[in-house]
Each structure stands twice: as C-alpha cells, then as structure tokens.
Amino acid sequence: MYCDMHAHSRTHNIFVYGCENKRNAEKKLSEQVFPLMMHKNVADKFSFENCKFKVQRSKEGTGRIVVWMLGITNSYTLEASFGGSTLGSRKGTHFSTMDYEHMGRVFCETLLDYSDENPNKVKKQTKLIKMIKKIRKREKREQKALKLKKLNDQECIIEEKLKVKQSLDESLS
Length: 173
Hints:
This protein is 51% helix and 10% strand.
C-alpha cells in the first residue's frame, strides 16, 4: 500500500483518491475495500461516497498514480478537508488536531485489519467487494436516471420554445 496525505480546501470530509483497477479482472474493485473499511471505522469523518477512483491523464504525475503504475493496487491520496465534516454527529463542524490524530490512528488500525490474513477477515473483505458492486450499480442507475431527466428537461424546453415560436408566427400572420 502507498498513501500520501494532503489537506483539501474545497471538498468536505476525509476521503481518498485511488486508482481504479481495470487491468486485472480478479482484482476489480479491490482498491475500494480499504477505503470502505475506513468509512465503517470512522463514518462521522471519513466518507466513502466522496472517494474517487478514476485515473485522470492530468494527474499521471501524482505519487499515487506513479506507484499504482508500478503495480501497487492500493495506492491512495488521503485528503482531509479544511472545511470539516458533513457526516453524522459531526455535520457542520470543523476538524481539530485531535480529529486528524484520531484519523491517523484509525488509518493504522484499519491497515492492520486489512492486512490480517485471518479467514474471517478475508471473508469480510469478500463481502465488502460485493457491497461495493451494489453501491456502484446503484450509482450508475442514479447517473442514468439523472441523464434521462436532463434529456427530458431539454426536450420540454425545446417543445416550449417551438410553441412560443409557433404562437409568434401565428400572431404575426
């Protein structure tokens, strides 16, 4: 695993940028297990929903992508917001030094759990991959529904403009 840590000025919560594993079908979504475990361990600060795993060409010089290209599946940039949390009991609060220290502890504890070869923990990770698949399918459905709604809204606007144009044409003739 590789992880560099940064502060983020715009997005709230603590989250990671990772690298989507499309090269190896056996490892598909495995890069998202550790961040989901982090979310489960500290859900009032760490947001799995804010995590992004796309590799953008403009970011190819970043540490996480360079290390990922060397073959490290779990390569992340951990981002901690200056803006605080929007989650649970911490909603609307800023992070303190104690919060960041707590996240460091949770990161290490989660890393220990993640690397534990106990069959029960391995089984739990397999369940988490299934959960991630469901989450990603739901997100795709929501994105598709949003695109359809936008198309429908655009069609309604075009129809409305045509009606106005026809009305103007009729009144001018």
